[in-house]
Amino acid sequence: MAQPKILLTRRWPQAVEDRLSRDYDVTLNTDDTPMTAEQIGAALGDYDAVCPTVSDSLPAALFDSKMRTRILGNYGVGVNHIDLDAARAAGLTVTNTPGCLTDCTADLALTLMLMLARRAGEGERELRRGDWSGWRPTHLIGTKLSGKTLGIVGMGRIGIATARRAQGGFGMKVVYYNRSEVDPAALKGLEAERLDTIDDVMAAADVASLHIPGGGANAKTIGAAQFEKLGASGMLINTARGDVVDQNALIAALEAGTIAGAGLDVYDGEPSVPEALTRMENVVLLPHLGSATLETREAMGHMVADNLDAFFAGREVPNPAG
Ligand SMILES: O=CC(=O)O
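Structure tokens predicted for Glyoxylate reductase (322 residues):
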């Protein structure tokens, strides 16, 4: 029997490309440029499986009954770039990669917190510019994280892992908002108080870290009113999705001093980043590095491969999305 035809929309770690190339008739996007929606639409007519990622866009208009594709093996946990309802209505199975990127994304949330609180980006820029004039007691004074309050918005796997690091490493008090009650077993050993609303979390937090999925109802969850609550010494961390923050309201809040600073790994409309943000010293900007370690990027790829293997063997897929 012919091997299923599979398209990877971007380059993946070598070990996973090798595994898939052994077991499937794989097409690689060798020059690694993002594919247009039209190219992905055409691929849905040509391939048995398409494996997209967060840099792709799969709106409802791409899915029709003439598709050859039967499974979308998404490389990543977030699937807000895929119109899931339309994909399912067209008979597609959609899978994602939950769990394997939890530690790395939580690590990056802490990286942003520390860089922001300790003004590490500012300091590095100063040194590289040749402007460092030596140690002095008043140079680049930051803020201690130890003992401060971390507010988690979205207490899922990554929110919990971030809270554990902040509490275990820095003795931070943790408050959180989650739409539904969190399984107490997942919170074992963590002292964390669930508050009734996101605004309550913002008001209580010195640092607010976002861990809710993007898209749909979560768009612009954090806007001007929430920045007012976070207050002039408050810091915002976003490793989730850019669209959960009202980006214009964030820029306005930073410019007005409504909040103290922001540490961002994701942007609404990325990879474009508003110039206003790039000019601010009290903002740490990373290029969507949450899951970017070799171990995790390989694990994500193997998870996609496991889902494809199960699907084409007629078994239940281990990680259905949504
Ligand atoms: O951002 C990365 C992911 O959603 O996996």
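The pocket of glyoxylic acid is lined by residues 54, 76-78, 101, 290-291 (CB under 6 Å).
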